[in-house]
């Protein structure tokens, strides 16, 4: 009787604990677990999509004012630079690097073409709010030279350029103080810093501004170093970049005669020869004439851009070196650039996603399959790439810093990341009270040129 009562009491106190109910409870727990996990995965996926969308909207860091915004990371949230620009009269030899041994080469004659960035950047710095006239407060030092132009116009030989650079540098105490780390040089052509043959000895720590990220085709090493140097845009003809004063206007896609074009001198370069031969196979799709240096077949300035705008894609193969001006020109005639140069380096990669505004195709696959691929891209996608390129092409214009977006302002942002609080070289030493001295313990303000270079 007591046992029966105990069983009854046990059942009464746990009325839902039958085996069937326990099984149902386990099923509910398992179902809840899987539903929760599915919901979490769905939420994460949704969140990832949202973040991806946000990233895609920020590809070019275009702010509400229509200008390009540099990310805070590594740059700061505003420009704060002091750059000293050496005067051509303060250093013996500097005028020769600008105007030749006889001083007969003018800056105006050097401002056009791919060499023009040496002149333009110098002129803009002279008028810049970032310029300082006091060496002791400068973050960076700019050395103006027009050596590419001077060399091409016969103003100095290669040997004279080399000797004159060394002579100039030996008169700069601040160059020796830092080992050249805070000194800026512009080398605007495909040769890059190789114009100064002794650059590996004297400029191996300096900041080099150049469109040329690779020149290992004829040298054992490239002068460009991703840690210290800055890739700058090529110098596009002002007549194309100026708003409202363009030499030519872009054509609607439907009115363009060719699928693609290449307008450049072949000069026996393998990639360019391939394009000329390909154009002969497919003359209705690819325009690639053998351009001449002179004579009746030479394209005039306006004719060149009228041809360039007449294709959906502008091909940019490697020439003497890895970069080509056609890449930058294409944005102003609004064709999509197709890079056929495997080693190319592009400017401002911290703010521009080039996969959204250009195509890079393996140079070894230059042939019919390239044209087939380009032909497969719908016009809507081509238009979208052109529209995105239109947003950022201001970065390829050497306009005054008063413009909200320009190559000059972009270069200033990149230079800001190169500023250091402290500089040293193998030939500088310091004492307990902060005094900077040389190897003979002579204080910095008493250093006399010419001096041994670090």
Considering the chains and any ligands shown, give keywords for the structure.
alpha/beta; 454 residues; 16 helices; Rossmann fold; 6-stranded parallel beta sheet
Summarize the structure.
With 454 residues, this protein is an alpha/beta fold. Helix content is 36%, strand content 9%.
Structural commentary:
The chain has 454 residues and is of the alpha/beta class. It contains 16 helices and 13 strands. It has helices at 2-13, 19-57, 94-99, 107-110, 116-126, 147-152, 158-169, 173-178, 199-202, 238-241, 270-281, 301-308, 325-333, 368-375, 379-392, 407-416, and strands spanning 83-85, 131-132, 140-142, 183-186, 207-210, 230-231, 258-261, 286-287, 311-317, 336-340, 359-360, 429-430, 436-437. It has a six-stranded parallel β-sheet with strand order 2-1-3-4-5-6. Strands 8-7-9-10-11 form a five-stranded parallel β-sheet, sandwiched between helices. It has a two-stranded antiparallel sheet with strand order 12-13.
